[in-house]
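RECORD TYPE: inverse folding
INPUT: structure tokens
STRUCTURE:
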């Protein structure tokens, strides 16, 4: 199975049309399916929703260029899951340590809202990503869409693994940890505090690398 969608992926017509429109409006943006950031031998996989229009869709790296990335990469650096300095661009030199970052949907959706059909269509790339990670021990899902898509990718019943912040589920040989998405909206409204996110990233690291 192909691990990453092609640069000109047309599996989701609405998303392909939206990318084409953005390529005209923002010709300097990446404007393509955003590939996973990190190595396939990592022990932790972080799964988000989809690229932001002026975030990952601009930079070509998950969570890079918007508020969600500011918080996520700060926490990864704090917990030793990243090295270097985050500077909101793909060539900032930042590297990940024993973790990789991807999205449930690889292309930017209008209004940041992929349809159920688009989520389902893109899931084959998530399944391929998980399957390719031989040393994977834990998955941190950011938001309900990511959580549900991971459950579907793993063949786990969502009714038995409901989304809630801080939930920890053992699914086969993997541990699934779920968190509210680290979006500006969630942090501004207090749905997710930095302390809450700090705790869940710490738990994800512990699940993936209990010996460290």
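DESIGNED SEQUENCE:
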């Amino acid at each position: 199975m192909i691990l990453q969608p092609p640069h000109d992926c047309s599996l989701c017509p609405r998303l392909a049309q939206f990318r084409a429109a953005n390529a005209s409006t923002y010709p300097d943006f990446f404007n393509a399916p955003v590939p996973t950031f990190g190595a396939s031998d990592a022990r932790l996989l972080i799964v988000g929703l989809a690229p932001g229009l002026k975030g990952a869709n601009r930079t070509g790296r998950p969570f890079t260029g918007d508020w969600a990335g500011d918080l996520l990469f700060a926490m990864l650096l704090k917990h030793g899951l990243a090295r270097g300095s985050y500077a909101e661009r793909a060539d900032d030199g930042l590297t990940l340590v024993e973790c990789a970052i991807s999205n449930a949907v690889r292309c930017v959706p209008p209004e940041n809202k992929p349809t159920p059909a688009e989520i389902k269509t893109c899931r084959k790339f998530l399944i391929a990503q998980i399957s390719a990670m031989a040393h994977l021990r834990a998955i941190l899902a950011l938001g309900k869409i990511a959580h549900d898509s991971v459950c579907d990718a793993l063949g786990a019943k969502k009714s038995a693994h409901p989304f809630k912040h801080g939930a920890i589920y053992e699914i086969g040989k993997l541990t699934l940890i779920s968190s509210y998405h680290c979006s500006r909206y969630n942090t501004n409204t207090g749905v997710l505090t930095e302390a809450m996110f700090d705790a869940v990233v710490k738990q994800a690291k512990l699940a993936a690398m209990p010996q460290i």
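NOTES: Residues 43-208 form a domain with the Uracil-DNA Glycosylase, subunit E fold (CATH 3.40.470.10).
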